[in-house]
Each structure stands twice: as C-alpha cells, then as structure tokens.
C-alpha cells in the first residue's frame, strides 16, 4: 500500500511540473500541411527551430500552455547571410538563438502581444504590419524595466 501511495504522489508531482505546452493542441485547419522541426510547427522550409536557447524554448512553451495550442514558427535561428537577406537587424537576436517569430492559429495577434507584455521571460516583443506573427526574444531587459522592449506594427 505504501508503494502505491508513493507512486501516486510521484505521478502527481511529475504531472504538476510538466509544462502545460505538452497538452497544447495542434488540431484544426491552421496546422494542415505544415512541417515540423524538432516538434515545432514551421511555416516554411527556411525556418531553423534547432538553435533556440532553453530560455526561449520555455517562453514558447508558456505561450502554448497559456493558449492551449501549438505555435507555428515563422523564423527562428538565422545565420548572418540569411538575416541580411530578410532585412534583419545587424545585431539580431535571431542570430544568437534568442529570438523567434511565431503565431498561433486561431489566436489574434493582439492576444499574443498582450500575453507577451505580461510575461517576465520576454525581453523583446514586436509585431510586423500585415503579418500574423509576433517577434519574441529573451534579451535582458534594461535595468528597472518591468515590460519588454517593444517595437510596433
């Protein structure tokens, strides 16, 4: 009996520590036809979802857990050549494996931005005019700043 109770307690503890992202859904038409890279849905073949820092992975998992749906990454790691080709900043956090551009099918961009503004792990946050995705990075926030550094649509 002690072993059974111990096993149930351990199961409860482990389940409580599991990121809610593990339970996020990828059902619906917004995911049809998309490829995956290391378990991450990607919008096109040029997305590199391999090189993401643990801090960025945790932030993405938090978004997935909060909204209950998987993200679709539009941009992850960029090498300097590709970053220049797409018009990225010279010191882009994408080149440091610290940034991702993503959307969540069925979730308005405004809701993603609002959640990112409240998330303590988000250091930089922005969106692009006429695109469904947002930019999230895990840079250090300037001293005393309680919200991410932002750029607008």
From TrEMBL:
<protein>
    <submittedName>
        <fullName>Peptidase M15</fullName>
    </submittedName>
</protein>
<dbReference type="Pfam" id="PF08291">
    <property type="entry name" value="Peptidase_M15_3"/>
</dbReference>
<dbReference type="InterPro" id="IPR009045">
    <property type="entry name" value="Zn_M74/Hedgehog-like"/>
</dbReference>
<dbReference type="InterPro" id="IPR013230">
    <property type="entry name" value="Peptidase_M15A_C"/>
</dbReference>
<keyword id="KW-0732">Signal</keyword>
<feature type="domain" description="Peptidase M15A C-terminal">
    <location>
        <begin position="59"/>
        <end position="137"/>
    </location>
</feature>
<feature type="signal peptide">
    <location>
        <begin position="1"/>
        <end position="23"/>
    </location>
</feature>
